[in-house]
Amino acid sequence: MDEEQLLRRVARGDRAAFEELYRRTAPWLAARLRRRCADPDLVAEVMQDTYLAVWRAAGSFAGAAGDGSGAGWLWSIAGRRLIDGFRRRARQQAAPAALPSPHARAAEDEALDGVLGDEMSTALRDLAPELRAVLQAMVLDGFTVRETSILLGVPEGTVKTRARRARLVLREALS
């Protein structure tokens, strides 16, 4: 039985199928998440959230109609959960005790300044938010065009266009 068949059985509430799906997919999913996140607590949280979502939403798996990969669907859920986890942690770590001054800089901008030169930091900071989001997903988080499309909720063509525009804007700003 493949992952798609297991997902169809999970959708009908079959706990044995869920356990088999977990046994088969958890090792590679955890390895893939660990390549993108060094925090074992966040990886464990994402794994738990992912499989809870699979149990609750297996009926929405498009592959049940024969047009999707079970592993791909599972990864798309995990990828979204990982990005949500990164955002949640960043908000928790960067949450100020008082209201920020109007000139306060984002924590990610300060971190980038320590790694990148002033020109590159300024160019990245000046990018439109939608262009920066694509670069962050594809370059910093290592997601593919398809995964970025799923994570940001935009078509793949839009991701490609935004990535190209971001590269052009950065090239122009740095020349």
In short:
The chain is mostly helical and 175 residues long. It contains 9 helices and no strands. α8 packs across α9.
Describe the model.
- The structure is a single chain.
- This protein has 175 residues and is mostly helical.
- It has two domains: 3-91, RNA polymerase sigma factor, region 2, helix turn helix motif (Rna Polymerase Sigma Factor, Chain: A), CATH 1.10.1740; 104-174, Arc Repressor Mutant, subunit A (Orthogonal Bundle), CATH 1.10.10.
- 75% of the residues lie in helices and 0% in strands.
- It contains nine helices and no strands.
- It has helices at 3-11, 15-36, 40-57, 70-94, 107-115, 118-126, 129-140, 145-152, 156-174.
- Helix 3 (40-57) crosses helix 4 (70-94).
- It is elongated.
- Residues 96-109 have low confidence and may be disordered.
- Residues 21-91 form the RNA polymerase sigma-70 region domain.
- Belongs to the sigma-70 factor family. ECF subfamily.
- Residues 119-168 form the RNA polymerase sigma factor 70 region 4 type domain.
- Pfam families: Sigma70_r2, Sigma70_r4_2.
- Keywords: Sigma factor, Transcription, Transcription regulation.
